[in-house]
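#help-structures
NK: newbie question, is this the right format to request a structure? protein is AraC family transcriptional regulator
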Amino acid sequence: MPETRQSSPALLRGSIPSGGGWVSHGYHLGSHSHPEGQLVYAAAGALATTTERGTWVAPANQVTWTPPGFEHSHRFYGRTDVRLVAIPADQCDALVAHPSVFAVSPLLREALLALTDRPEIRPSAHSRLRGVVIDELAEAPEQSLHLPEARDDRLHAVTRLLHDNPGSTATLAELARASGASERTLSRLFHSELGMSFHRWRTILRVQHALVHLTNARSVTDTAMECGWSNPSSFIDAFTAVVGQTPGVYQAHLRHATA
């Protein structure tokens, strides 16, 4: 994509945010909301969208969705080619009523790029393209890179320790002692509050951090070690199960998109 496309935090702060631009690694847009729905797609790079319900991470084969009225923030990883598409409030009922991440099909990708790459020349052209986007999203599977946040103080203490050190190999029993709760209580809280096991939650946390490392051109082996896997093979298996492609394929796509 030519460098003449705008590099624009101002774009992200627009009253009706839509369009495309490059943002630098680590750029953070603080908590805000919109009267319309919003799709945010990283055609290159990766992004995290955070709401009170947790954090959703989207690499270049996924798109984040935030319905109208939800307070949310964004953080971008790697030099990111960010695309923003506003969905009018009266069209949002066709999509899920909660923030989510969706797989991006080839057709959906091209529609998102067309909406954000060029001005509207023919009347209602963008409206028709948004219809294609909504139809594709209605059929697209929700992805599993959502990391819910804890409300219970004991569980929050454990998840904060892991956020601070995602490569930690501490067992649930060891974390329980650090939080003042029993292992059984923590296991129950992971299921009742976060809707998943301790192992699943930590795996998604590690994959989220791995996406950041890979986006910054770290090697697969170094990423595996830094994010807590004992060997690259187990990392590749876990990453592929969550993201839907191997770390090597993900980095190859990043290089192609940036080029």
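mod (FA): yep, format's fine, and the tokens are attached above. The longest helix spans residues 198-215.
NK: thank you!
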